[in-house]
């Protein structure tokens, strides 16, 4: 027995046959550092992004919120911390819709709501229709897909400034086509002032926004099995019935996210009206983003402008929360069914 034990000991490197990896607290202590490294690595990789998010978004939001409670005018720009504390006065003036400031803010808010609803609806409809048409294989489909994405790929300033030249009264392309070529108008129209400014702004917004909807919907269509359409066609379902019964229900999760993103982007859009109209937008196209800019930098009342910005943020947070709650509830109902 002693000779056998010696042979086994030499074969196992001097360890007893029943010896194994350390067990008990020592084993847990040995495994813990590796587990900590695995768990902590994702947070370590996210740390630079979190720090940039803090610097770029959260810090200005906190400073802007503090400014909204101060009487910060042009007299305190050099040392805004010395501005007197005004409490909720800026908010009171902003929501007093019987006063001139509140009435102008309400008008701008309603204009922005109408503009956002129309823009998002048209972007979604055009993007969905184009994505469905691009599903079938045909010659030149890749080229058309690339051309559809050009408005989305162009820089905002370059795209909008091109529309500014096209909307010119005397030598713009829009009046040349509508009035000179087609004869649809009695005289050349003013597109950048007056009531037509809303139509011009909506046109530019839809033109540069619908390719994003097209791209997202086209990606969502790739997840719908072709067998569903083939089975529906065998049952006698037409194209419209297939779209209504298969395509749109299957795209519901994609559309929920798409509509929310388009709504937030459009409601907050500042670049398009600013480049299209300049610092002072016409009354018919007075979006709330430009209105807050004018309140802050035209009247030099940064406290009141900050209060309007905070109110806008709260409104968007409420809309986002309601949208997420409704879509989550609908998802749970469909799951139970």
Describe the 3D structure.
With 337 residues, this protein is mainly alpha-helical. Helices cover 71% and strands 0% of the residues. It has 15 helices and no strands. The longest helix is centred in the first third of the chain and has 43 residues, at 25-67. The chain is globular, with a radius of gyration of 30 Å. The relative contact order is 0.10. One of its GO terms (biological process) is transmembrane transport. Belongs to the binding-protein-dependent transport system permease family. This is ABC transporter permease.
SSE inventory with pairings:
Blueprint: H1 2-11, H2 25-67, H3 89-94, H4 100-133, H5 141-148, H6 150-153, H7 156-166, H8 173-181, H9 196-221, H10 226-234, H11 239-250, H12 252-267, H13 271-277, H14 288-297, H15 302-336
What would you call the shape?
globular
Mean pLDDT, all residues: 84
DSSP, total strands: 0
The total of helices stands at 15
In terms of structural class, how would the helical and strand content be classed?
A: mainly alpha
């Amino acid at each position: 027995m002693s000779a056998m034990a010696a042979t086994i000991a030499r074969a196992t490197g001097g360890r007893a046959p029943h010896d194994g990896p350390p067990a008990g607290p020592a084993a847990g202590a040995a495994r813990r550092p590796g587990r900590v490294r695995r768990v902590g690595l994702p947070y370590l990789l996210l740390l630079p992004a979190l720090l940039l998010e803090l610097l770029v978004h959260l810090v200005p939001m906190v400073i802007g919120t503090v400014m909204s409670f101060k009487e910060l005018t042009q007299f305190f720009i050099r040392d805004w911390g010395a501005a007197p504390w005004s409490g909720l006065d800026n908010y009171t003036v902003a929501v007093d819709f019987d006063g001139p400031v509140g009435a102008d803010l309400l008008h701008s808010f309603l204009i922005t709501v109408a503009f956002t609803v129309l823009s998002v609806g048209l972007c979604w409809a055009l993007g969905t229709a184009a994505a469905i048409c691009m599903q079938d294989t045909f010659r030149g489909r890749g080229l058309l897909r690339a051309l559809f994405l050009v408005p989305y790929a162009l820089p905002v300033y370059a795209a909008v400034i091109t529309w500014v030249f096209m909307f010119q009264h005397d030598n713009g392309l829009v009046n040349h086509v509508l009035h000179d070529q087609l004869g649809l108008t009695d005289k050349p129209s003013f597109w950048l002032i007056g009531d037509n400014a809303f139509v011009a702004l909506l046109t530019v917004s839809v033109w540069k926004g619908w390719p994003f909807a097209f791209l997202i919907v086209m990606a969502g269509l790739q997840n719908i099995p072709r067998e569903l359409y083939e089975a529906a066609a065998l049952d006698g379902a037409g194209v419209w019935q297939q779209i209504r019964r298969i395509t749109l229900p299957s795209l519901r999760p994609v559309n929920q996210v798409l509509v929310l993103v388009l709504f937030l982007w459009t409601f907050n859009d500042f670049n398009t009206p600013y480049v299209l109209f300049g610092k002072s937008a016409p009354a018919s196209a007075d979006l709330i983003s430009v209105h807050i800019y004018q309140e802050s930098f035209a009247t030099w009342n940064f406290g009141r402008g900050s209060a309007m910005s905070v109110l806008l943020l709260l409104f968007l947070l409420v809309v986002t929360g309601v949208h997420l709650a409704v879509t989550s509830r609908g998802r749970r109902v469909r799951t139970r069914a």
